[in-house]
Known about the structure:
Elements: E1 5-10, E2 16-21, E3 26-30, E4 36-40, E5 47-52, E6 59-64, E7 68-73, E8 78-84, E9 86-87, E10 91-92, E11 95-100, E12 106-111, E13 116-120, E14 135-136, E15 143-145, E16 151-153, E17 168-169, H1 178-181, E18 199-203, E19 209-213, H2 225-243
Antiparallel strand pairs: 1-2, 2-3, 3-4, 5-6, 6-7, 7-8, 9-10, 11-12, 12-13, 14-17, 15-16, 18-19
Amino acid sequence: TKLKVTMVAWDRYDATVITAVNNFLLKVWNSSTGQLLHSLSGHDDEVFVLEAHPFDQRIVLSAGHDGNIFIWDIDKGTKIRNYFNMIEGQGHGAVFDCKFSPDGQHFACTDSHGHLLLFGFGCSKYYEKIPDQMFFHTDYRPLIRDANNYVLDEQTQQAPHLMPPPFLVDVDGNPHPTRFQRLVPGRENCKDEQLIPQLGYVANGDGEVVEQVIGQQTNDQDESILDGMIRELQREQDLRLINEGETLPNPPLNRSHSVNGG
């Protein structure tokens, strides 16, 4: 079988090169001489994630479609730690990406089931206050390009980075309660009426009053109440900038700035 390299990474100081091969082995090479230093075994499916520790050149992380995450000492060619991403009732989840924190004390991974996995020292109590499912309501909003080829949000005609802070929703697009909305940077001090309540009561076509997620309600123009609140927040933000003496961005067709603000 012809072997293929699936991923390549350098250590922190470029002294060694690590390659992942489709026979599930990791190879550690001297970057100057090309000498093979170690063959690391442990994975039993293809590896597409190799991450070097941000400052310790001995430490490398690997993760793959077998659900395994390994921490390696590439100086000694040994395994330091192994984590297996088992999902109850669904088997294992393939790991698609991993990144170390800048201080090297934590790392985060994402898997094939849409989970974010956080590893590090200490307890997880700090993270237990957040819901299991968290998305920004703008995550899957359609984008368009203006005449200058800059990216705009289709609904508001604003560059995404100029829009008000997004709302937190679950996987079905239902807004989370206000205590979670305040976790979004820029919404810490918002009034309750500026945050989305989780449920409301509306009359259906049969005249019955039913409980319904407010993000799914629409007004007379078939615009969701959530979108209406976003539009109002955008208007308030523009008015505040005018009152503070700042110049608003040009209309979409005449924008002269890039999406990243450069």
